[in-house]
Amino acid sequence: MPLPAVTVHEKRFHQELQLSQSPTVSGCKAIKWEEGTSYVASVTIGVDPNCLFFYWTDQHRKSECLDLAVVRDTRTGDKKAHTPRDKTLSQLCLIGEEPTPERCMTIVCGNSYVDLRFISFIFTKRSDAQFWTNELFQLAYNYKTQNISLERTLLKTYTKLKITSASEVRITVKDIIQYFYTDKDDRRRCERTLESHKNDPILLEKFQFKDFLRLYSQIVPRPDLESIFISLTGSKSVKFLTAEQMRDFLNRTQRDPRLNEILHPYATTETARVLIDKYEPHESSRSEGRLSQDGFIRFLLSDANSVVSPSCFTLHQDMSHPLSHYFINSSHNTYLLGAQIKGKSSSEMYRQALLTGCRCVELDCWPEEDGKDILITHGRTFTEPIAIKDALEAISDYAFKTSDYPLILSLENRCPAKLQDKLGRYLKRYFGPALLDQALSSHPLETGVALPSPEALKNCVLVKNKKRAPTVGASPLSGPNHQIDPTGEGIPEDALANDNSDTDDESDDTYPVEAGGLAVSQEATAAAKQTGRPPVVQMVETELSRLVNYVQPTRFDSFEAAKKRDRAYECVSLVEDHANVYLKKDPVHFIDFNKRQMTRVYPNATRVKSTNFLPFFFWSAGCQMVALNVQTADLGMQLNTGVFEINGRSGYLTKPELMRQKNRTLDPFTESNLDGVVPASISIRIITGLMLSLKRISTFVEVDIYGIFADINKKNHRTRACQNNGQNPQYDQTNQPFTFRVMLPEMAYLRISVREERTSRLIGHCLLPVSQFRPGYRHVVLRNEIGQTLPATVFIFTDVKDYVPNYQIDLANALENPIRHQNEHDRKEKMDQLINLTNDLEDQDPEVIEQAMAPKDPLPGNGAPPQLAISNGEMNGNGGNHSELTPPVRNDTPEKIVHPLSACLVVDRAHRESTSTATPSGTPYIGKPRSGSGNLTTQVQPENPDDLAAHQRLQAVHAPVVEELKRQTKAIQKTCSQQDKDLQKLRSKYEKNIKRLEMSHAKERERVILVHDKSRTEQEKRGGGRTTGGGDADGMVKLQEGQWWELLKRQAEAATALRMEYYRKELDLNLTYHETFYRQLEAELNLQQLVMNEQLKSVNTFNVEEIKKKLSQQASKELAELKTRKDLDKSQLEQRRDDVTQKNIRQGVSIAKKYEILYEDRRKILTEEIEMLLQKVKREKSQVELDLREKFDAKRSVLEDELKKNSSPHAATAVRTSNGELNSRF
Q1: Binning pLDDT at 50, 70 and 90, where does residue 518 land?
Q2: Could you list the residue ranges forming a coiled coil in this record (predicted)?
Q3: pLDDT-above-70 percentage for the chain
């Protein structure tokens, strides 16, 4: 069977990285220069075959490389790429006839969004610069570059070693050790380990990656992987895994139990063979279909064993829902490089935010001091402004460079009307047709009409700004306590706290007009201040206001009012404090509001250092645009980057169904199960860290869950610190996994972070979606603060399954296996009936109880199998035949019970089909007490109805019937079924072989006949047509008869040999399954013994508790009677009470001891019965094996007799004559 079907998204992810074929790729010449110096170098650039590094080699053959994973951008052309500004440097860079800016390429790289490094190259041709700019950008933002496995991380180290060293150079093992350890003690330890090879010269030209991996396994030992391999093979001496063992490992350990078996089939032996062919480094092992330890480790390091599904990193979600059904990657004050009050600003931040996948950027528009143009700045602070043109140019160039889905420009507009018109013209100039200046015909701006989808708005730019905002004038509605909102309705001044747009939270003294309105003259403003009354409002639309359509900010009153208006195009902006109030006060209606309309949440003004809140708080309410400070890579931004990395970094993520469907509700604070959502249970064990640091540092690992409020676990889950080991620390010290319950897996993320113990410095982290999480042994490659991959890796073991509370375990088991649940239910029901029956008979005469508890015949036709039991007379030493087990047989089954192993068929099909349901393995046989059980000699005899009832409950637990185990144990059934299949395959193969042999023999006989006929004809010709030659003719006939006899003898021997081979293989197959069958049967009997012991303990506990309860009730009754007696004084009453209490205790202890004796007697009897059954099974096993061999010997004897008979000359002549052959011709 082939591998499970791979989705289109996984195929897209697994596409191999490669550089486009071009004559300029190999050995392309360029000039590398550095700004601020006169350094110019002629270099040869290229990309390694694995597309991991971009490198350049100077004239001295010294090579440097740049990891493509840290490349943020590549630029060429004027105003994009950096060009030499120094005249001397410009003269040195003048090569070719084209202008220098067109031949220049700048690579932007760095480990943060603020501190960037710029590397510049100048080419001889413009086409070369354009080619390398495009290709390097595509490679840097490829799925595989950003999401690598540990194997690819090691490939990076190997590739860097090859690039930075000449191919003809010989290096030693000591030189390679420096790539993993910088501490002297660590290097010496490794050198001592590799003492005999540390100075061996290695020619890099012949040094392959498989050699590097072998050397790495010696430099950085992995005892954890070795122990896993040994646990799978079962012994240290076994050096290989078979395909079947690998298949079982994939299905039992590495498979997600939540997957559908039809859509995601189980791994087969063929699947395991494909993996063996791919990862086994040894040719001999591959040819034999075995996986060595090296191959097993390579599989665990590879992409095929990634911790999450690769398809989640590609664009795989449905993008046809309304905009309000998505989380949108958003930024706050995008232009800032640092703090909110005092810091630098740059248009470069817009480029970096858009490259990260941000789809909502913010522009704070303020007029210049002279009022002629617009600046981007944080108003009334000391931050540096930038020109509006620079910001819009940067946005237009990078708006759709990494994502084609709509970009939202969130304007905090503080400009007068004239500048707003100018801003509108700027937007049209820079964005052109991409600017959506009017609503789509399919989604008009009307009540009840949903927002368009991201798919419908591809490559569109949306403007978020107030539509038809008010201007200043005289108003009849004006008053000391009233303001005017965009709808023209009066709103009390104390309701301004609910106006949650950025523009409303910060007023402007120079222009007291909100965004979108016309400014009034200074005279009108002065008059309004003198009167102390707010002026009249006029509705005048500006050029900027006409560009606003689907993202119209409005004042928020209440959820009820917004629901009545039902305008999907109206959105609200909430500062985080106000959003928290609404979330805590009415989370359900807040989520319902966000199903229809959009909400933008931005940080509080008190976050002057540009810190961020946790975005999951507001994603839990369904808020689409949770704006964060991109320049600060704290925990909030790390979570945002990790979440939006999936779905192809498109900047849009589909919200969970509970946050989209109108007919379903969600309370993010609830601890109970959500509507239609199955919670998940995650158990994770941190085993090892790898390549965390080249230094000797102490580290620990933290594990957290983020999601809705109910899923955010406030408990600190961290491992113990591993001291002084930065290369391969071992964290699995206590062997205690961290367990999490996840109520909404679709929105939950698991974060693994590694920190240094002394400083708590973050070494690396990784955010994993729970819905795409894969259980088993996995390597997790960590990332830095901005999401770039690191060499640091954590090796974990996880167990993911559906969470089921204790009170719903029975329901879950019933849904998983209805037949098993029904069988267990029937047994429990019968046990309850038995207990109720004994309780009802407690007050009756013992003879009546004996009669009631006597076994009865099962009711015919009830559909339930009869209670199977072995009479005690057969099992004790007083009577019964110990050599035979005679279970009762149902009327609809054959009376003859055929043993499950015979010469050609192991299990009698009639017995397998006789029972429609199977008893699950590990379930004790509980039924009515067996006849004769009262004759058992025990140390204690029942004295009253209570003792008899307890005795009968213990007798209800009895040993199983072997024949029933044979028919009902799943493992045995599977073995028998597999044997049937193998025997049928063997029979079919034999029939095909015998058919081919017969055809071959027939052709050979025809050839001999033709030769004989030809000889006869030639003889007749030589004799002149006379047939009376006498001696010559007789001699030829005898010769041909001899040849014919030899032919038939040889053919008979070949047929007999083939048949004998079939019988021998049949015997070997039967003996193999015979051994497996009885081994499983013995294991099942041992399991039944354990289960019966546990059941006896439960029954004994129940008996003791029942008698304690009755004694307590009796004592309470006696004490109540004592209270009614008037003839006793206080001291006598106390004395009587003590007597009653002491009597109750003595009786309880005495009865408990009695019941313990009954329990021990019954346990010993059952143990003896099981032991006798095991002995019986062993004798039966030997007898069956003997029968099989005797039948084989009988068949062999028959074949030998037939061969002797058919090989005689008389038989050969008879055959020859019956076939018409030689006698008739001669």
Answers
A1: very low
A2: 980-1007
A3: 76
- Does 702 carry a binding-site annotation? no
237 or 715, higher pLDDT: 237
CA distance 473 to 495: 22
In the predicted model, what is the mean pLDDT of residues 1158-1170?
87
Nearest to 1144 by CA among 1121, 1124, 1118, 1169: 1118
Cα dihedral sign for 1004, 1009, 1015, 1018?
negative
Topology at the third CATH level for domain 680-803: Immunoglobulin-like (2.60.40)
d(CA 457, CA 71): 29
Question: In whole angstroms, what separates CA 1134 from the centre of its chain?
Answer: 69
**CA of 314: how far to CAs of 305, 309, 358, 407, 751, in Å?**
18, 10, 17, 20, 20
Arithmetic mean of pLDDT, 1107-1115? 84
Other Cβ atoms less than 10 A from the Cβ of 159: the count is 22
**What residues are paired with 684 via a beta bridge?**
738, 798
| Cβ(699)–Cβ(729) below 8 Å | yes
What is the mean pLDDT of the segment spanning 336-341? 92
168 to 179, 202, 383, 537: CA distances (angstroms): 20, 10, 55, 82
Fold of 228-305: Recoverin; domain 1 (1.10.238)
Q: Is 16 marked as a binding-site residue?
A: no
Place of tokens 């100075």: 199
> pTM of the predicted model, to two decimals?
0.65
Span(s) in the chain for CATH 2.30.29.240:
27-141
Q: Which residues pair with 778 in a beta bridge?
A: 796
CB-based contacts of 744: which residues, under 8 Å, 6+ apart?
Answer: 656, 658, 666, 674, 677, 679, 707, 708, 710, 711
Rounded mean pLDDT of 1061-1090? 86
- Report whether 333 belongs to an annotated binding site: yes
Q: What architecture is domain 326-469+545-659?
A: Alpha-Beta Barrel (3.20)
Contact predicate 229/293, CB 8 Å: yes
Instruction: Kindly give the pairing relationship between strand 599-602 and strand 570-575.
Output: parallel
Tell me if 1187 is assigned to a ligand binding site.
no
Contacts by 1100-1105, CB closer than 8 A, 24 or more apart = 1100/954, 1100/1155, 1100/1156, 1100/1158, 1100/1159, 1102/953, 1103/950, 1103/953, 1103/954, 1103/1155, 1104/1151, 1104/1152, 1104/1155
Tokens of 1210: 């008389």
- CA torsion through residues 1057, 1058, 1061, 1063, sign: negative
The lowest-confidence range among 463-472, 628-637, 754-763 is: 463-472
CA distance 301 to 1024: 88
Collect all residues with Cβ–Cβ distance below 8 Å to 188 and sequence separation of at least 6: none
Contact 469, 486 (CB under 8 A): yes
Smallest Cα–Cα separation from 120: which of 53, 50, 36, 47?
A: 36
The residues assigned a catalytic role are 332, 378
Chain region(s) in the chain for CATH 1.10.238.10: 228-305
Contact (Cβ atoms closer than 8 angstroms) between residue 757 and residue 721 = yes
For the chain, residues classed under CATH 1.20.1230.10 are 964-1015+1039-1215
Model confidence at 537, pLDDT cuts 50, 70, 90, reads very low
Contact (CB, 8 A) for 517 and 471: yes
964-1015+1039-1215 architecture in CATH? Answer: Up-down Bundle (1.20)
